[in-house]
């Protein structure tokens, strides 16, 4: 049986890759410039799925966030029922493996037309990819991106008119680790070739370094590649496996594209540990949900190494632990997927919420501030808010999200002025106009001489979740006001609600700001208690270190 992941990394570098990535920490990757600093080329009128303001949207303008899996159709053409099974588990997208005939038997136009037809029948957005390009430059059997582009042009008549339903992923992982800088020019050329042939579909491009971009070539050249597309309907795909084994690497990479206003999704990712390392899938999924980015897990079934099979033997009734995590776990498909509105599952919502009220600042510390505002209104309902930091020249950086009209922004610098504003959004992805801004200057530092102790306990737990309690005591001689408590979970736990404070979480790192009735902790051992509910996996290790306003507490 052919493996569907046999060429993820070349043998000469397998033992070095994880170590190099850890050493580099991805810190050498170039920072993408803000979108506002670049003039955009003239774009053709978009049809179907397209890119707007750095996001993937449907033809009617509704936000579309991909939640789905990969399916190895070219190696298992008889598994035609898989799309129905994937849909039944809640996915809204499937990425389908095809071959252009360079390395495996080519998928014919009639076969591809059948795949598209089955995707539409099962109300799935269809991402089609040529797998033969995998590891070009290092894998001798790999096809070029130009050859992949020629294959797509041969399918032009099949794909024309399917722009609402189909995304064209030019080639899978189209460059290995040998001279990955060579990825940029062929990628631009392939995009231009498809546009010259009349393709109006959203085009997806995979990163070099076997999709994982650990040397930062795609990150550094994304702006140039995107601006080379005459339509602007191009989305970047990062594949996250063992190179991305820490929360910081994941958040840094995803936020670099979001902050630059460039569209991105996690086109493949794994969770189970292998000989190269242990990917941090919990952070990948949590951050994708927080940033409203798409993700497509690898893969439905049929891997030579079954550790990455979501379904055992293509049986949807026998999900592996990896499959249970993807479909039913925290930030999984079952909890976060929304069907594309093009399938007519409900009334189309194109009305944006009203702008939120002007935010007011409270609980200002050296490193955080709590913002509160008057809620926005919407014809259907507001589902969340994005807090942005407004920089010089009007650039914006998303710094927090919230489902209620309050949020705590953390990670700020002491004695520093900041300007914040808000956007509201609804379930269809419509975004409001920006609120008025508020100016805040952080404090000089934490409470002088503050001393503290923290007691943490699990009150109750159940499969997939638990209730926790934190008691924070002031053991010093001066009252503590407007505090921020920081700690980190080690096993992917995610706080879903809290009383006694407001939690902000990025990956495993948690920052808690007080409620009005817990904002002051008198001296002399008096304490305040915080309670919370959280999602968890199989392991639920308690945090071991806590810091109050940057000063460590006795745990």
TrEMBL record:
Reaction catalysed by this enzyme: Endohydrolysis of (1->4)-beta-D-glucosidic linkages in cellulose, lichenin and cereal beta-D-glucans
EC top class named in words: hydrolase
Record flagged with keyword Signal: yes
UniProt-listed InterPro entries: CBD2, CBM2/CBM3_carb-bd_dom_sf, CBM2_carb-bd_dom_sf, FN3_dom, FN3_sf, GH, Glyco_hydro_5, Ig-like_fold
The EC number(s) this enzyme carries: 3.2.1.4
Domain of life according to the entry: Bacteria
Record's signal peptide: 1-39
Family listed: Belongs to the glycosyl hydrolase 5 (cellulase A) family.
Protein name: Endoglucanase
Organism: Streptomyces coeruleoprunus
């Amino acid at each position: 049986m052919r493996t569907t992941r046999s060429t993820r990394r070349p043998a000469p570098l397998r033992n070095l890759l994880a170590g190099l990535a850890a050493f580099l920490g991805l810190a050498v990757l170039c920072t993408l410039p803000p979108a506002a600093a670049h003039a955009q080329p003239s774009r053709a009128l978009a049809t179907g799925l397209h890119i707007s303001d750095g996001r993937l949207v449907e033809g009617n303008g509704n936000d579309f966030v991909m939640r789905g899996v990969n399916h190895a159709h070219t190696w298992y053409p008889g598994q035609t029922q898989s799309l129905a099974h994937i849909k039944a588990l809640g996915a809204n997208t499937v990425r389908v493996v095809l071959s252009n005939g360079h390395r495996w038997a080519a998928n014919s136009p009639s076969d591809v037309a059948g795949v598209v037809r089955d995707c539409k029948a099962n109300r799935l957005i269809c991402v089609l990819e040529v797998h033969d390009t995998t590891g070009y430059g290092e894998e001798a059997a790999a096809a070029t991106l130009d050859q992949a582009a020629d294959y797509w042009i041969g399918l032009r008549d099949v794909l024309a008119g399917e722009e609402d339903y189909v995304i064209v992923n030019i080639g899978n992982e189209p460059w290995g680790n040998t001279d990955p800088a060579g990825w940029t020019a062929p990628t631009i050329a392939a995009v231009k070739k498809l546009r010259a042939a009349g393709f109006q579909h959203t085009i997806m491009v995979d990163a070099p370094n076997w999709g994982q971009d650990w040397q930062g070539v795609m990150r550094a050249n994304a702006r140039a590649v995107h601006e080379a597309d005459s339509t602007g309907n191009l989305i970047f795909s990062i594949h996250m496996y063992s190179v991305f084994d820490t929360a910081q690497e994941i958040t840094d990479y995803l936020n670099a594209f979001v902050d630059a206003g460039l569209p991105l999704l996690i086109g493949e990712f794994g969770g189970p540990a292998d000989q190269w390392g242990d990917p941090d899938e919990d952070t990948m999924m949590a951050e994708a949900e927080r940033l409203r980015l798409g993700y497509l897990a690898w893969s439905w079934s049929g891997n030579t190494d079954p550790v990455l099979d979501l379904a055992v033997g293509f049986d949807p009734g026998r999900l592996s632990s990896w499959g249970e995590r993807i479909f039913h776990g925290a930030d999984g498909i079952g909890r976060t997927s929304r069907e594309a509105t093009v399938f007519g599952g409900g009334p189309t919502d194109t009305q944006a919420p009203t702008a939120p009220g002007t935010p007011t600042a409270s609980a200002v510390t050296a490193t955080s501030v709590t913002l509160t505002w008057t809620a926005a209104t919407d014809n259907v309902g507001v589902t969340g808010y994005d807090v942005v930091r407004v920089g010089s020249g009007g650039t914006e950086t998303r710094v927090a999200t919230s489902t209620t009209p309050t949020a705590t922004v953390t990670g700020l610098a002491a004695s520093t002025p900041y300007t914040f504003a808000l956007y509201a959004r609804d379930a269809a992805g419509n975004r409001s106009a920006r609120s008025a801004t508020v100016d805040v200057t952080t404090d000089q530092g934490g409470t002088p001489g503050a001393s503290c102790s923290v007691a943490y306990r699990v009150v109750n737990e159940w499969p997939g979740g638990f209730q926790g309690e934190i008691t924070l005591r002031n053991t010093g001689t001066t009252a503590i006001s407007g505090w921020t408590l920081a700690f980190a979970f080690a096993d992917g736990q995610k706080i879903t609600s809290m009383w006694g404070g407001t939690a902000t979480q990025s990956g495993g790192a948690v920052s808690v700001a007080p409620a009005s009735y817990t904002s002051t902790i008198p001296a002399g051992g008096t304490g305040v208690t915080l309670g919370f509910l959280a999602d968890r996996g199989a392991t639920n290790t308690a945090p071991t270190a806590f810091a109050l306003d940057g000063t460590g507490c006795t745990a």
